[in-house]
Amino acid sequence: MSKKLTYQIVVLFLLAILLSILINNLSINLSRSGLQLSFSWLLRPASFALAENPLPYSPSDTYAWALFMGWLNSLKVILSSLILATFIGVFIGIVRTVGNSVLGFLAAIYITLIRQTPLLLQLMFWYFVAFLGLKDSIFMPIKGMISISNKGIEFLGLSLSSEFSALLFGLSVFTGAYIAEVVRGGILSVSRGQWEAFRSLGFSEINGLFKIIIPQALPAIIPGLTSQYLNLAKNSTLAIAVGYSDIYAINDTVINQTGRTIESFIILLSSFFLLNLLISNLMEVINKITLNSKKI
Amino acid sequence: MIKFTRNIKRTLSINLFNGLLTLAILLIIGLGFIFTLNWLIFSANWKVVTLNLPLYAFGSFPVDQRWRPALWIISLLSLSVITLIGPNRKWLRKSLPLAWIATLPLGIYLLSGGLGLPMVMSRHWGGLSLTILLTECSLLFALPLGIFLALGRQSELPLVKTLSSIYIDSMRAVPLIAVLFFGQLLIPLFLPIGVEIDRVWRAIFAFTLFVSAYIAEDIRGGLQAIPNTQIEAAATLGLNQFQITHFILIPQALRIALPALTNQAIGLFQNTSLMAILGLIELLGIGRSLLANPEFIGRYIEVYIWLASVYWLFCTFMAVLARHLEKRLAIQKTNI
Amino acid sequence: MEHIVSAKNLSKSYTKGLYALDNISLQVDEGKVLVVMGPSGSGKSTLIRTFNGLEAFDAGELNILGIRIDASHDERRIRQIRKRVGMVFQQFNLFPHLSILENIVLAPVQVQKRLQTEAEEHAMYLLAQMGIATHANKYPSQLSGGEQQRVAIARALALKPELLLFDEPTSALDPERVNEVLDVMRNLAKQGMTMIVVTHEVGFAKEVGDQVLFLDSGKVIETSTPNVFFSNARHERSRKFLNQIENK
User: Fold this and answer.
1) Which among A69, A250, A83, A73 has a CA at the least distance from the CA of A163?
2) pTM of this prediction?
3) Which domain holds residue B53?
4) For residue B332, what pLDDT is reported?
5) What is the CATH number of the domain that holds B192?
6) Regarding predicted confidence, which is higher, B84 or C97?
7) Cβ contacts (< 8 Å) between B312 and chain A: which residues?
8) C17 in B contact zone (CB under 8 Å)
9) Is A142 exposed, middle or buried (0-12, 13-18, 19+ CB in 10 A)?
10) Are residues B199 and B269 in the same domain?
11) Beta carbons within 10 angstroms of residue A16's beta carbon
């Protein structure tokens, strides 16, 4: 018992020494550059423009407001990618498990292409090739309803910038490949007997899949889905590569302007902490709902 | 009887639908294939790739010294091939892990120079050789750190357990780019005046911190999968806590965690591309700087397809190598 | 002379009022074989596992090879005991990542600091005695259950123990594999090894056992010679138990 205590005191002591050295260095470095830690600059005007602002914003607004816009932009792209990625992932996951062989083969190619190449490269492809590559030629699959050009996507009056669209598609297609594997694993975790059971009851394949198999697969799917959603949120910070003003990109601009590295880093981390909390709680609620509906 | 015909009708309609669907998809694939082939051969201009192959491989490494990174990459590839073949001689097999570890100091020596070789500053390191260096270095540093963190999280000492958990959980909650950014901008602030670490090593430091948290969780999963009876059997033989950890727990945990660790390695290899937007000119960075060159402006598709193929090839190769290793190290389910 | 094992009033309770071991006392002398029998859940595994400290107890004291341990579960003394007491488990518990030879050599080299070559020589001698020397470079998963259990015995013997504990060593084996393990144990008894064996093998107990200890609900119901126990058990509960295993 006393031996354990000694070990812990030694660990604590070493950690305290390390931390005090680091903090000492930091304060020396900060005082040399004349930037004492402070957050009051947050209330000064940001004086940079934003390409996208979900709420009214002008360069005369404060840094704090600009950062908040970034946070909202992050939230916007995360939530919409999350929905699109889920659709892609569920569809591909089902196709890969129960689809016909040609579709299954295509799905397998999609998954290896997406998983064995860097996300950053994929995002650049979506932005520079898929959207900016369109020049100003407008691509209209369904006349009047949707139009796609290098300005982005117009969909029934809703207009999405090309930066947002590239990020949305890049993140969704990427995360979809991972969600597909989660869904596949979940479907395969349901015993073969359940398939035979619904077939013998006269259910069609699709009907049985959605009414019998998927509800049973959900408890196995949701934890994997949650971690994919959290990954998606983290990956959304690559927005800076396509010039979308998410929380990380705006932090980057702020640091370049003010030199407030430490403070911005703290803000970045806490905004992320908040985003993570939001997603995990959301998933917790979904998890509870599915568990409850299972009991009935 | 009615039911029987209905069943047949249903089967027929499903088969008909399935057949038509397959035909349609095959048609689309065929058209896409022809279109792509046409583009690849007639429209694409591959000069942006073919003229710059040495750049993709070595970055701005001095031309007369390019043999050094080349030698390193060749030694890595040949070691991979030896590992894949799986030599029969016991001493050769036992020395393989050591040989892999030795490639790291070899690579650093060949890239940076000294001891008879002209020095090359790290800002001239680039391309594939830098990508590989970032990956291998971070991985080899992160592995022992990850093992310690995993053991720490399982520790009986509450303080060690808490500290390890806090580190692992917070690292895993943060985006990688934030950690890399921390490495580039914040590390200098925490160092004493006069001490400087260059960009490449700061990146490796940040990657190591980040990946070790993920490796720790994979190894913890491996540790938890080891049945308690293994520890009992070892304790019965008189092995102490350290010996049990060293000879029984870690080797088994590593084997169990190998598939997950492979995914980390592949993920890390891909993620080194993030340094392209943080000031290093690794593989993707070379592509970006070439696209900024007026001579090759607008050649996005060619560069991206080329880079994607290189990444894909290396990642697939790593997966094959790991699967081979897994097979050889597999703990087959004992017949208990 | 001193007993190899002597237990005095050992008690261990899981929850209040429910005893895993209830006031157990026993002695084992050098060169003797004690067979422990009892229905499942009677505490026989718990009892044998206290003898090398895998299981702690709440009250009483234990003297193994002259080393005394009590409820305080002193780690240092327990390690001293473990260096001199071997144990064989029901599920073999070989180390799956080590070859057969490495399994056996690990403890002699790491714990007793013997030379690798000397330890390997001894291991090969033991494997030859068990009739499995050709498997030395294989891995546990490549062996049958009976072979694995013989490796486990060799692993325990490699430390040259003064006492061997067997916790149902044949219960996990296919019936046709049981005898190859029991033969090895018979030989050990002949060579004068002191052993405590938890088992349901009546034939083995009759032939090899010097004493049979019958345990039920953590209590010693009776201790008799095999002759008395199997033909003329003194207690109703013992007779009921014997009927049950005969009917199997």
Assistant:
1) A73
2) 0.89
3) 48-335
4) 45
5) 1.10.3720.10
6) C97
7) 112-113, 116-117
8) no
9) exposed
10) yes
11) 10
